[in-house]
Every structure is written in structure tokens, then in C-alpha cells.
């Protein structure tokens, strides 16, 4: 297995169910229903990684996207909620709405591009989806800003597979420091594309 030193270039050689998130050094992923930072380079990375593949998210993460940006184009957007009837509300337009995360993951794998499924969070959904996932693409932002939503803790079954940059940080055009990291479970394989 080759380990890419630039995770934004990875391609998987087997079906994957991945989680993708951005977090602070302390694992904060959200605050007040949004993300407490601006990082255009991470948004570009998120788009590159998830484009063409189904995405699964909790209703609160869906709600956190400005209406004009949802559904995320080029991706089947699957949203889980326990609210009966929410799928018929105007706020759900463009989403495939399901009331079970297991069902959402099956539906995603049957959707276009379902050889790679990306779970987008948030905190509640990551915590429940972890056991079903074999990849985690994590952007670490070099900040200690506080928040109210936490990334899941990766257990010993997860191993670090690469980072960009290999050491240290990229610096955003807005001055924020960040790095892309890739984690996987077990024998999950990936290669850099040609
Ligand atoms: N930094 C990042 O990369 C990142 C990524 C994603 C999200 N976020 C942030 O995380 C925060 C949102 O996360 P969150 O943990 O509060 O909420 P969330 O996980 O996005 O959504 C939770 C909601 O999903 C539904 N749900 C959860 N589990 C379900 C299940 N098993 N079956 C059916 N429905 C289920 C419920 O919706 P109902 O209440 O409708 O029943 C629940 O209230 C926001 O601040 C967002 O900006 C950050």
C-alpha cells in the first residue's frame, strides 16, 4: 500500500464509507449550529473529496447549510431525522430523507457513486456512524476556539495514514493554519491517482 503524503490526492481501491470533518486542536467541530471558523481551502477540499458521491448527514447539519447551497450539487444528499413529516417541508427540498441511519447508509451505497459514501456529521451522526465507517478525512485547524459540538474520538482500531503537509501546517489565505489528515481502519487501501 502506498501512503500518499497529500491526502487530497487519494483514491480508494475498495468501497469505503468515510467520515469527513474539520476540527480544532481540541476536537471542536461546531458552535451555535455552525462552524466557528472560515476556511475556504477546507471547503474546496471537502468539495473535491465528496463530489460525485452520496453524502449522509443529520438534520441539524443540513440545516446549517445556507438554503442556496443545499442540496450539495453533484451528490445524493441523504438526511436523517426522527421528525415525521419533516421530509415534506420546504426546508427539506432536494434531500432524500430517512428516519434511520442504517437505512441511510444502505441507500447511500445504492446511489450513484456509492462505492464511496461520505458521512458529513454532525456530532450526533458521527458518534453513531463510526462503527460502520472505515475512513476518516479530518482537517485539523490550528485554533483553540471553543464550541458545543465535538468530533468523535477515534479508537485503537483506527490508524493514521497520511497528512498534508507531512509536518507542520498549511496557511490559508486568511492566515488560518490547517492540515489535512487521513485515518483508516484495518486494511483499508488507497493509492494516489495517476
Ligand atoms: N466541522 C465540521 O466538519 C462539521 C461537520 C458537520 C457538522 N458540523 C457542525 O455540527 C453541528 C451539528 O451537529 P449535531 O451533532 O448538533 O447534529 P447532527 O448530527 O447534524 O444532526 C442531529 C439530528 O439528526 C437526526 N438524527 C440523528 N441520529 C439519527 C438517527 N439515528 N435516526 C434518525 N435521525 C437521526 C435528528 O434530527 P431531528 O432532530 O430532526 O429528529 C438529530 O437531531 C453544527 O454546529 C454543524 O455546523 C461541523
From TrEMBL:
PROSITE patterns: DHFR_1, DHFR_2
UniProt KW NADP keyword: yes
Name of the top EC class for this enzyme: oxidoreductase
Entries under InterPro entries matching the protein: DHFR, DHFR-like_dom_sf, DHFR_CS, DHFR_dom
SUPFAM superfamilies per the UniProt record, alphabetical: Dihydrofolate reductase-like
EC number, as in UniProt: 1.5.1.3
UniProt pathway annotation: Cofactor biosynthesis; tetrahydrofolate biosynthesis; 5,6,7,8-tetrahydrofolate from 7,8-dihydrofolate: step 1/1
Oxidoreductase in keyword set: yes
Superkingdom of origin organism: Bacteria
Catalytic activity entry: (6S)-5,6,7,8-tetrahydrofolate + NADP(+) = 7,8-dihydrofolate + NADPH + H(+)
Domain spans labelled DHFR: 16-185
Alphabetically ordered keywords of this record: NADP, One-carbon metabolism, Oxidoreductase
Family: Belongs to the dihydrofolate reductase family.
Function noted in UniProt: Key enzyme in folate metabolism. Catalyzes an essential reaction for de novo glycine and purine synthesis, and for DNA precursor synthesis.
Protein name: Dihydrofolate reductase
Species the sequence originates in: Arthrobacter silviterrae
Amino acid at each position: 500500500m502506498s501512503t500518499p503524503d497529500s491526502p487530497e490526492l487519494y483514491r480508494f481501491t475498495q468501497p469505503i464509507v468515510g467520515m469527513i470533518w474539520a476540527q480544532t486542536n481540541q476536537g471542536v467541530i461546531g458552535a451555535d449550529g455552525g462552524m466557528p471558523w472560515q476556511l475556504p481551502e477546507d471547503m474546496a477540499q471537502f468539495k473535491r473529496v465528496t463530489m460525485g458521491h452520496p453524502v449522509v448527514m443529520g438534520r441539524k447539519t443540513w440545516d446549517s447549510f445556507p438554503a442556496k447551497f443545499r442540496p450539495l450539487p453533484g451528490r445524493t444528499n441523504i438526511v436523517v431525522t426522527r421528525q415525521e413529516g419533516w421530509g415534506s417541508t420546504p426546508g427539506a427540498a432536494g434531500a432524500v430523507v430517512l428516519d434511520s441511519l442504517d437505512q441511510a447508509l444502505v441507500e447511500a451505497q445504492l446511489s450513484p457513486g456509492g462505492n464511496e459514501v461520505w458521512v458529513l456529521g454532525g456530532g450526533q451522526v458521527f458518534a453513531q456512524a463510526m462503527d460502520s465507517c472505515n475512513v476518516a478525512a479530518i482537517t485539523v485547524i490550528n485554533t483553540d476556539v471553543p464550541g458545543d459540538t465535538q468530533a468523535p474520538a477515534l479508537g485503537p482500531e483506527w490508524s493514521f495514514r497520511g497528512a498534508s503537509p507531512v509536518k507542520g501546517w498549511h496557511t490559508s489565505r486568511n492566515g488560518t493554519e490547517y492540515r489535512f489528515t487521513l485515518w483508516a481502519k484495518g486494511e483499508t487501501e488507497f493509492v494516489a491517482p495517476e
